[in-house]
Amino acid sequence: MTALLIAALVPVIIMTYEVIFTKDRSVLFLGNYPQKLVFIVICYYIFLMGLGLFWLVKQLIFAARLKNEKLKAELMLLKSQVNPHFFFNMLNNLYGWTRKDPERAQEMILKLSDMMRYSIYEGEKETVAVADEISFLKNFIELHKMRYHKPIDIVFINDIEGNQKIIPLLLITLLENAFKHGVEKLRENAFIKMSLTHYKNQINFQIENNYEKTQNRPGIGLKNLKRRLELTYPNRHKLTFSITKNIYKAELILIEL
């Protein structure tokens, strides 16, 4: 940019010199100034303007790419923070199950390996099939059923039949919250009700569970989810929460990419 400014001053310096040292002062009004020189100066400035515009566009493209790379890095960091404590807890439980019920432990290991594989490989993709995300949620539910020594009423209704796509590992945060703040804390009558529907170009996920009123609901997982939605579904999502008595409900609406 400095070079452009210096280059722009060159004709000004030349013309100033001509004005000061020429005997014909009418040069101030370009009256007797050689027409060819005037034409050259005009072309010179047009060239500089084009060069400056090119430099500006190049800088804007660079800034946009840099911003995009930063957003991608932030998104990858947010993805890496999904469910770490869940896998840690399940591995701890497996140790006990290998001694008490080896067959059940084997089943848990298979489901857990499927989930870890999905988190690592599918989680890196920009989008995945909603059907794959549903399978991931079902494995999560089955593992939790094996983990808890109490009856849990879980209902999961979905009408997804097409090839709809979704950002991976979005829905798991809301399901994990329902287990963490509801099922895990309640001694009896714990329930989770979920529905996943598709209408026109919208995917609607609803989940509700009962919980103890003394608990504080917000956590890092929800902040993580909100930020991921801002990055991947800007102006194309709606996340709402509501509480009725001791029932907590979350609803996520996504407009397809």
From TrEMBL:
Keyword Plastid: no
Keyword Membrane applies: yes
Location of the Signal transduction histidine kinase internal region domain: 73-150
Chain segments annotated as coiled-coil in the UniProt record: none
Gene Ontology MF terms in the entry: phosphorelay sensor kinase activity
SUPFAM superfamilies cross-referenced by the UniProt entry: ATPase domain of HSP90 chaperone/DNA topoisomerase II/histidine kinase (SSF55874)
Keyword list, A-Z: Membrane, Transmembrane, Transmembrane helix
A Gene Ontology term for the protein's cellular component: membrane
Membrane-spanning residues: 37-57
InterPro entries according to UniProt: Bact_2-comp_sensor_kinase, HATPase_C_sf, Sig_transdc_His_kin_internal
UniProt name for this protein: Signal transduction histidine kinase internal region domain-containing protein
